[in-house]
Amino acid sequence: MRARMIALILAAAAMVLPACADVSKAKEETHEPAEMVAVEGSDQEGIAVEAEAIERLGIETASVEAGVKAGRTTVPAAAVCYGLEGETWTYTELDEHTCLRVPITVEDIDGDTASLLDGPEVGTQVVVVGAAELFGVEEGVGH
Asked: Which of 71, 21, 57 is closest to 132 using CA atoms?
Protein backbone atom coordinates (compact mmCIF):
# COMPACT_ATOMS: atom_id res chain seq x y z
CA MET A 1 0.00 0.00 0.00
CA ARG A 2 2.79 2.39 0.95
CA ALA A 3 4.67 1.64 -2.28
CA ARG A 4 1.50 2.42 -4.26
CA MET A 5 1.11 5.77 -2.48
CA ILE A 6 4.71 6.73 -3.25
CA ALA A 7 4.24 5.70 -6.89
CA LEU A 8 1.10 7.85 -7.11
CA ILE A 9 2.88 10.88 -5.63
CA LEU A 10 5.80 10.44 -8.03
CA ALA A 11 3.43 10.12 -10.98
CA ALA A 12 1.60 13.29 -9.96
CA ALA A 13 4.87 15.16 -9.55
CA ALA A 14 6.01 13.99 -12.98
CA MET A 15 2.87 15.55 -14.47
CA VAL A 16 3.08 18.85 -12.53
CA LEU A 17 6.78 19.64 -12.87
CA PRO A 18 6.83 19.79 -16.70
CA ALA A 19 3.84 22.15 -16.55
CA CYS A 20 5.85 24.46 -14.28
CA ALA A 21 8.72 24.42 -16.76
CA ASP A 22 6.34 25.41 -19.57
CA VAL A 23 5.08 28.39 -17.58
CA SER A 24 8.59 29.71 -16.94
CA LYS A 25 9.50 29.15 -20.59
CA ALA A 26 6.39 31.06 -21.72
CA LYS A 27 7.27 33.87 -19.35
CA GLU A 28 10.76 34.14 -20.88
CA GLU A 29 9.26 34.36 -24.38
CA THR A 30 7.04 37.36 -23.62
CA HIS A 31 8.24 40.76 -24.72
CA GLU A 32 7.56 44.32 -23.75
CA PRO A 33 5.53 46.58 -26.06
CA ALA A 34 8.05 49.37 -25.41
CA GLU A 35 11.75 49.33 -24.66
CA MET A 36 14.74 51.62 -24.35
CA VAL A 37 16.95 51.69 -27.46
CA ALA A 38 20.20 53.34 -28.50
CA VAL A 39 19.77 56.48 -30.62
CA GLU A 40 22.47 57.21 -33.16
CA GLY A 41 24.12 60.56 -32.48
CA SER A 42 22.72 60.85 -28.95
CA ASP A 43 24.11 59.89 -25.57
CA GLN A 44 20.53 59.37 -24.42
CA GLU A 45 18.40 56.30 -25.12
CA GLY A 46 15.13 56.58 -27.00
CA ILE A 47 11.90 54.71 -26.36
CA ALA A 48 10.80 52.29 -29.08
CA VAL A 49 7.08 51.59 -28.93
CA GLU A 50 5.25 48.94 -30.97
CA ALA A 51 2.47 50.17 -33.26
CA GLU A 52 -0.20 48.28 -31.29
CA ALA A 53 0.96 49.91 -28.05
CA ILE A 54 0.89 53.38 -29.63
CA GLU A 55 -2.69 52.76 -30.69
CA ARG A 56 -3.72 51.22 -27.35
CA LEU A 57 -2.20 54.08 -25.35
CA GLY A 58 -3.62 56.69 -27.69
CA ILE A 59 -0.27 58.44 -28.10
CA GLU A 60 -0.72 61.69 -30.00
CA THR A 61 1.75 64.28 -31.25
CA ALA A 62 1.68 67.91 -32.37
CA SER A 63 4.18 70.11 -34.21
CA VAL A 64 6.54 72.59 -32.63
CA GLU A 65 5.52 75.99 -34.02
CA ALA A 66 7.37 79.28 -34.47
CA GLY A 67 6.68 81.64 -31.60
CA VAL A 68 5.49 85.26 -31.83
CA LYS A 69 8.83 86.50 -30.44
CA ALA A 70 11.94 86.02 -32.56
CA GLY A 71 13.91 82.92 -31.60
CA ARG A 72 11.01 81.42 -29.64
CA THR A 73 9.04 78.29 -30.39
CA THR A 74 5.76 77.05 -28.98
CA VAL A 75 4.36 73.65 -28.09
CA PRO A 76 1.04 72.62 -26.61
CA ALA A 77 1.26 72.93 -22.83
CA ALA A 78 0.34 69.23 -22.68
CA ALA A 79 3.74 68.44 -24.25
CA VAL A 80 5.63 69.91 -21.27
CA CYS A 81 6.81 67.36 -18.68
CA TYR A 82 8.13 68.32 -15.25
CA GLY A 83 10.74 66.57 -13.11
CA LEU A 84 11.03 66.51 -9.33
CA GLU A 85 13.73 69.19 -9.38
CA GLY A 86 11.71 71.54 -11.61
CA GLU A 87 13.42 70.48 -14.83
CA THR A 88 11.27 70.48 -17.97
CA TRP A 89 11.36 68.30 -21.05
CA THR A 90 9.24 67.01 -23.88
CA TYR A 91 9.23 63.77 -25.82
CA THR A 92 10.02 64.20 -29.50
CA GLU A 93 9.10 61.72 -32.18
CA LEU A 94 12.21 60.45 -33.97
CA ASP A 95 10.12 58.22 -36.23
CA GLU A 96 6.63 56.78 -35.98
CA HIS A 97 7.74 54.24 -33.33
CA THR A 98 10.58 55.95 -31.44
CA CYS A 99 10.54 58.90 -29.03
CA LEU A 100 13.34 60.76 -27.29
CA ARG A 101 13.27 62.91 -24.17
CA VAL A 102 14.54 66.41 -24.99
CA PRO A 103 15.20 69.11 -22.37
CA ILE A 104 13.29 72.35 -22.90
CA THR A 105 13.34 75.80 -21.30
CA VAL A 106 9.85 77.21 -20.83
CA GLU A 107 9.51 80.98 -20.97
CA ASP A 108 5.82 81.02 -20.07
CA ILE A 109 2.56 79.17 -20.50
CA ASP A 110 -0.47 81.04 -21.78
CA GLY A 111 -3.58 78.89 -21.80
CA ASP A 112 -2.84 75.74 -23.78
CA THR A 113 0.41 77.03 -25.31
CA ALA A 114 3.92 76.94 -23.87
CA SER A 115 6.47 79.42 -25.22
CA LEU A 116 9.98 77.97 -25.24
CA LEU A 117 13.33 79.72 -24.94
CA ASP A 118 15.07 76.48 -25.87
CA GLY A 119 13.83 73.20 -27.28
CA PRO A 120 13.21 71.21 -30.44
CA GLU A 121 13.15 72.87 -33.85
CA VAL A 122 10.01 74.08 -35.61
CA GLY A 123 8.21 71.18 -37.28
CA THR A 124 9.42 68.56 -34.80
CA GLN A 125 6.62 66.34 -33.53
CA VAL A 126 6.22 66.32 -29.73
CA VAL A 127 4.08 63.95 -27.66
CA VAL A 128 0.96 65.61 -26.23
CA VAL A 129 -0.88 62.45 -25.11
CA GLY A 130 0.97 59.47 -23.62
CA ALA A 131 4.03 61.17 -22.14
CA ALA A 132 3.34 59.68 -18.69
CA GLU A 133 3.45 56.19 -20.18
CA LEU A 134 6.71 56.94 -21.97
CA PHE A 135 8.16 58.22 -18.71
CA GLY A 136 7.09 54.96 -17.07
CA VAL A 137 9.02 53.00 -19.69
CA GLU A 138 12.11 55.17 -19.08
CA GLU A 139 11.92 54.68 -15.34
CA GLY A 140 11.22 50.93 -15.58
CA VAL A 141 7.75 51.09 -14.05
CA GLY A 142 6.12 47.68 -14.20
CA HIS A 143 9.40 45.71 -14.35
From this structure: 57
Distance CA 79, CA 134 (A): 12
Q: CATH classification of 34-139 is 2.40.420.20, yes or no?
A: yes
For residues 38 and 43, what is the distance between their CA atoms, to the nearest angstrom? Answer: 8
Q: Which residues does 100 contact at the CB level (< 8 Å), separation at least 6?
A: 39, 42, 44, 46, 47, 91, 92, 94
pTM score > 0.85 for this model? Answer: no
Q: What is the phi/psi pair of residue 43, to 5°?
A: -90, 0
Domain locations in the chain? 1-30, 34-139
pLDDT in tens, the chain (143 residues): 544 444 444 444 444 444 554 545 555 566 789 999 999 998 999 999 999 999 998 999 999 999 998 999 999 999 999 999 999 999 999 999 999 999 999 999 999 999 999 999 999 999 999 999 999 999 988 65
